[in-house]
Amino acid sequence: MHALIIDDSRAMRSILRRIVTDLGYDTTEAEHGQAALDHMEGGLVPDLCLIDWNMPVMDGYQFVQRVRDDPRWRDVTLMMVTTESEHGQIVRALAAGAHEYVIKPFTPDAIVDKLELLGLLVAEVPA
Amino acid sequence: MILEGPTYTDLHAVVDEVWSAFLGPEDPLLPALPDTGLGDGVTWSAATSVTGAWNGVVTVEIPDVVAQTATERMLGLAPGEDLSTEDVADAVGELVNMIGGNVKSLMPGPSALSLPLVARGTIASPSDLTEVSCLDLTWAGSPLRVSVLARRDVPARATDKQESA
Q1: pTM of the model
Q2: How many Å is the Cα radius of gyration of chain A?
Q3: Interhelix angle B85-106/B8-23, nearest 10 degrees
């Protein structure tokens, strides 16, 4: 399983990478939506994208729209991981095609719970 | 004019949640002793703006030792490992981003959150901002300050009123 982690903060990418690698994922990182799309145009088809909302160049909402508009990526699971917690923003992201929504700050358990709901847990959760 | 902002309790809850989630629960945030301030050493400042139904700025000011420790913990590095200035700025920016995003959710919406602005030193506040909430805390023996500033409504100019009449 492969996770594409999209966040303009290296620190946040590192936190998310440690969580999902503990769960058995390989990871690729991108610092904004366009960089993530470039990886995918280059052939990467991740099982899971963890997507921040507020990023330079291309934000997470635009990224979700672009991925959902392309049939090559219809099986990619999209999970927003963001500080955007207004109800309207959550509804917009889900309507655009995001599968799940996690609000920062989060605990590793919150990510694990969402992946379990999505059927994307690939390894035993470390104690 | 009364400017709206989060209560002390709500702001403290937001900061506490961010700190414990990403920097670990072992060092609790504690109220600062009166007049301790941030000291004379190097500080880091970060700010993020909220614009929309509520307009304001959230700032975080921390001494270098807190910024370095926060960066180490967020990047999963051992204490004392070499950190670049960019790494520290990134980590401090992410802290204010999370605090700002959660403050935004406490205020009337809809509104938008800016990308964080980070400086080694102090960020000057625009003159149309008024502090509405401030937390002076200590973490692992070092001080930190989180402030929320609300933007005063700018009255329409007379010419604007005439044009719109």
Answers
A1: 0.89
A2: 13
A3: 140
Q: What ranges do the domains of chain B cover?
A: 8-151
Q: Are A51 and A41 in contact (CB under 8 A)?
A: no
A45-91 per-position pLDDT tens digit = 999 999 999 999 999 999 999 999 999 999 999 999 999 988 999 99
Residue A112 sits in which domain range? 2-118
The closest of B146, B149, B148 to B135, measured between CA atoms, is B146
Q: Tell me the residues of B at the A interface, defined by beta carbons under 8 Å apart.
A: 17-18, 21-22, 71, 74-76, 86-87, 90-91, 93-94, 97-98, 100-102, 104-105, 109-111, 113-115
Predicted interface score ipTM higher than 0.85: yes
Query: Between 3.30.590.20, 1.20.1540.10, 3.40.1550.10, 2.30.30.140, what CATH number should domain B8-151 receive?
Result: 3.40.1550.10
pLDDT in tens, B36-80: 666 667 799 999 999 999 999 999 999 999 999 999 999 999 998
Q: A76, A2 in Cβ contact below 8 A?
A: no
How many other C-beta atoms are found inside a 10 Å radius of the C-beta of residue B24?
Answer: 12
